[in-house]
Design brief:
alpha+beta; 3-stranded antiparallel sheet; 8 helices
C-alpha cells in the first residue's frame, strides 16, 4: 500500500502471460518495487511474461483509470470485478508445481536426505522447484498432513521423519574426509583439464588444496606468507 502524496505521478501497470492474457493490473508510484512485492506473495507470478506501464499525473487519476480498466478488461487474478460467491470463483493455484514440490520433498524425506528436526524454508524450496513461495508453502502444508513436516513458524517447517543429524553427517565418510570436503574443492588432474578446456588463456581461476601449492606451467605462483599454508593459491 502506498502512502505517497495524492498529487505524485502514479503508474497503472498491467501484467500479461505468454499468451497475452491479462493476469493483473494495479497502480503504484514505483511499479518496479511493486513487482518485487508480487514476486514474494503472488502464487501466479511465474506466469508473467511481460508488463506494460502507463503514467498518470496523480493518484486519483490513476485510480480512476484502474477502476475503468478493471471493469472492462477483467484481469484474471483480480477478483474485485467478480460478484459471485467465493465458492464459485475459479482457483488459480499452480497445481502442477504443487505436486512437483510435494512429491519431491516427500521422496527426499522418505529417503532420509533431511535430518530429524531440520528446518526447511518455503522460499528456498520454491527456488529449488521453480515455483512461487505460496505454492511451495501449500505443498509443505500438505506434507504436514502426511506427518512428514510440521509448520514451525511463518515460512518454516520442521522435518518430522529422518535420521539424526549426527548420523546423517557421518554416514559413509570419516570425520577427516568430511572436514576436507567442507573446506576445499577437490579436483583430479583430469577433471581440472576438462573444466578449463575451451576457456580463453587469460581466464582467471583459483584453487584451494590442503597444504599443497599447485602451479600450471607458464603461470606464476606466489610464495605463501608465514602461517598461511593451505590458503587460496591463485594460478
Amino acid at each position: 500500500m502506498s502512502h505517497r502524496p495524492n498529487n505524485e505521478p502514479t503508474a497503472l501497470y498491467r501484467l500479461y502471460d505468454s499468451n497475452d492474457a491479462l493476469l493483473y493490473l494495479g497502480i503504484s508510484w514505483n511499479p518496479d518495487a511493486r513487482m518485487e512485492d508480487h514476486v514474494k506473495d503472488k502464487h501466479w507470478i511465474h506466469f508473467v511474461a511481460r508488463r506494460t506501464v502507463e503514467w498518470y499525473p496523480n493518484r486519483p487519476a490513476a485510480l480512476a483509470a484502474e477502476a475503468a480498466a478493471t471493469a472492462i478488461e477483467k484481469p484474471l487474478h483480480d477478483s474485485s470485478w467478480r460478484k459471485t460467491r467465493v465458492g464459485s470463483r475459479p482457483q488459480w493455484r499452480d497445481l502442477e508445481g504443487r505436486k512437483r514440490v510435494e512429491d519431491g520433498l516427500a521422496a527426499e524425506i522418505e529417503q532420509g536426505q533431511h535430518w530429524l528436526g531440520k528446518v526447511l524454508m518455503s522460499g528456498a524450496v520454491a527456488k529449488r522447484y521453480d515455483v512461487s513461495r505460496p505454492t511451495a508453502s501449500t505443498a509443505m502444508d500438505a506434507l504436514q498432513g502426511r506427518g512428514l513436516l510440521k509448520r514451525w513458524h511463518y515460512g518454516r517447517f520442521r522435518v518430522l521423519k529422518g535420521p539424526a543429524r549426527k548420523d546423517l553427517e557421518e554416514f559413509d565418510e570419516t570425520r577427516a574426509d568430511r572436514k576436507l570436503r567442507w573446506a576445499y574443492q577437490i579436483w583430479t588432474v583430469a577433471e581440472l583439464r576438462e573444466a578449463v578446456k575451451g576457456l580463453p588463456d587469460d581466464t582467471l581461476i583459483s584453487a584451494r588444496l590442503s597444504g599443497q601449492r599447485v602451479a600450471i606451467p607458464g603461470q606464476r605462483t606466489e610464495k605463501p606468507a608465514s602461517g598461511s599454508a593451505g590458503s587460496a593459491a591463485p594460478f
